[in-house]
Structures are given as structure tokens and as C-alpha cells.
């Protein structure tokens, strides 16, 4: 994926099993846990391009969140803050070759950032 592409969409859920059944039946999504990411079932749409995860709902995560592929989280966060964004979650490692962060745009919308490759 290229810088600026939507790469992943997380959906907050309170019951992973119920949500997996709901989305797989409703949309035909393939949903499964991937080794190394237990407790975070990943979904893929029938087009084999769109995908994301079903993540536990929490106080700071109550609405679906899109993740944007970036060349550098550090540079993107710096540019975002200069443009009026807030950092909701600092850069964190997913795997040794991938990282994520969450910023809030000037209207408070949460936007996930993704850098690297998980090898999946």
C-alpha cells in the first residue's frame, strides 16, 4: 500500500464471538484469529482487499477507526500536530517491522496511522 491509503478498519465490539458471527453472516466476511494476534480476530471482505479487526471496545475506542498507511509515523504526527491535530496514542510497536499511532484531527475524529509490514 502507498502513503495515504486506507489500510485497515477496526470495529470496537463487546463480544468477539457474537460480532464475528454477525459480520460473517451479514457481509460474508472471513473472520479468524491470526497466530500472534490472539483475541483480535481479523476480518477480510469478499474482495480480499478490504479488511480490519474486531477489537475490544474501551472507553477511548467506541467508534470504528480507519488506519492510514504512512511512510513515517514520526513525520506524519509532526505534520499533523503542526496542522492542529492531537496525539491520542503515541507510536507503538505491533511487530518488529510495524507500528501504529492514533491522532485526532482538529474536529476530534480519531485517525489511526500504520507504518511497516506485519508479514501477514
Description:
This protein is of the alpha+beta class. It has a domain at 70-120: 2,3-Dihydroxybiphenyl 1,2-Dioxygenase, domain 1 (Roll). The protein contains 2 helices and 8 strands. Strands 2-3-4-1-5-8-7-6 form an 8-stranded mixed β-sheet, covered by helices on one side. Strand 7 and strand 8 (110-116) form a beta hairpin. The mean pLDDT is 93. InterPro entries: Anthracycline_SecMetBiosynth, Glyas_Bleomycin-R_OHBP_Dase, Glyoxalase_6, VOC_core. Pfam families: Glyoxalase_6.
Descriptive labels:
VOC_core, 2 helices, alpha+beta, single chain, 2,3-Dihydroxybiphenyl 1,2-Dioxygenase, domain 1, Anthracycline_SecMetBiosynth, 8-stranded mixed sheet, 8 strands, 120 residues
Q: Based on Cα principal axes, name the global outline.
A: globular
Going by CATH, the architecture of the domain at 70-120 would be: Roll
Based on DSSP secondary structure assignment, what is the total number of beta strands? 8
Q: Which CATH first-tier class of the domain at 70-120 would you pick?
A: Alpha Beta
CATH topology of the domain at 70-120: 2,3-Dihydroxybiphenyl 1,2-Dioxygenase, domain 1
Instruction: Name the average pLDDT.
Output: 93
H/I helix tally: 2
What profile does the largest beta sheet have? Answer: 8 strands, mixed
Unreliable stretches (pLDDT < 50, length at least 5) are none
Q: From N to C, what is the helix and strand string?
A: EHEEEEHEEE
Task: Assess the beta-strand content as a share of residues.
Answer: 35-45%
Please give the radius of gyration in angstroms: 15 Å
- Structural class label: alpha+beta
**Please, what is the CATH homologous superfamily of the domain at 70-120?**
2,3-Dihydroxybiphenyl 1,2-Dioxygenase, domain 1
Q: Calculate the terminal CA-CA distance, rounded to whole Å.
A: 13 Å
Helix fraction, binned, reads: 10-25%
**Within the largest sheet, what's the order of strands?**
2-3-4-1-5-8-7-6
Amino acid at each position: 500500500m502507498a502513503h495515504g491509503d486506507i489500510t485497515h478498519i477496526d470495529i470496537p465490539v463487546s463480544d468477539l464471538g457474537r460480532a464475528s458471527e454477525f459480520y460473517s453472516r451479514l457481509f460474508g466476511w472471513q473472520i479468524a484469529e491470526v497466530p500472534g494476534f490472539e483475541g483480535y480476530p481479523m476480518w477480510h471482505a469478499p474482495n480480499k482487499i478490504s479488511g480490519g479487526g474486531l477489537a475490544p471496545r474501551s472507553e477511548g475506542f467506541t467508534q470504528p477507526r480507519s488506519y492510514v498507511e504512512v511512510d513515517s509515523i514520526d513525520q506524519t504526527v509532526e505534520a499533523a500536530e503542526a496542522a492542529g491535530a492531537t496525539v491520542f496514542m503515541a507510536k507503538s510497536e505491533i511487530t518488529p517491522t510495524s507500528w501504529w499511532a492514533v491522532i485526532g484531527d482538529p474536529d476530534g475524529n480519531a485517525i489511526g496511522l500504520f507504518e511497516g509490514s506485519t508479514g501477514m
